[in-house]
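Posting for a labmate who doesn't have an account.
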Amino acid sequence: MPRRPLRLRTAEADAEVRSGLHRIRAEFSVPGPFPPAVLAEAAGPAALADGRADLRDVPFFTLDPPGSMDLDQAMHLERRPSGHRVRYAIADVAGFVRPGGALDAEAHARGVTLYLPDANSPLHPRPLSEGTASLLPGRERPAVAWTIDIDGAGRITGVDVRRALVRSRDRLDYATARHDDGDPRIALLGEIGERLIAAEAARGGVSLPLPEQEVVHANGGWALKLRGDLATEAWNAQIPLLTGRAAARPVSLPPIHL
């Protein structure tokens, strides 16, 4: 049977939900607005003059939920004679943070971004996370760039990581980037994703494809939406998992010639 969202309507119910969310924020000391000193530091430029590799010619793309602006990861995929090469760029927010400064201290105090249905409490100010540090298409951005080679069985055969300058080409989202839409990038992601999923199963790993729950406010009411049953999301999830395994690998792997 198709999933049906759970809805809660009427002005009284809306006010009750908002009041409950306010109490949750107060009870758990959810951080509010950023102090002026933090916002001032977040508006500053990144520290780019540090010998970063120039990867701006690599056609990275991002893949995120619709409407996302805090684009913190991008990828470029290609076939190789013996497998695939995955380039994975992670937004280098550290390039904007002065050690020991107000922004650094605030990020340590917050720890993570906290999500509630009516708002979220971000780890970094939005002008940084959704602006100057976000891997938005057509913008030069500092990143930590991983290059990972895998063979036909999904095994890692080579790893390279370096700080770099990147420039994403496209911002794709799960709702429109389907495996059957003819985009060769999504076809490659499917090949790699399925290969890594099979390798995970061969290692005895388990992934639980549980849908994400989203509580959204629309049309004067609240709805519980379930998201996460798209193949592209499962394939995309394998890329950061691959990167985590690459980070844990011994340094004795042969160098990658970029």
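Reply:
Got it, the structure tokens are right above this. The helical segments are 11-27, 36-42, 102-110, 126-132, 184-202, 231-247.
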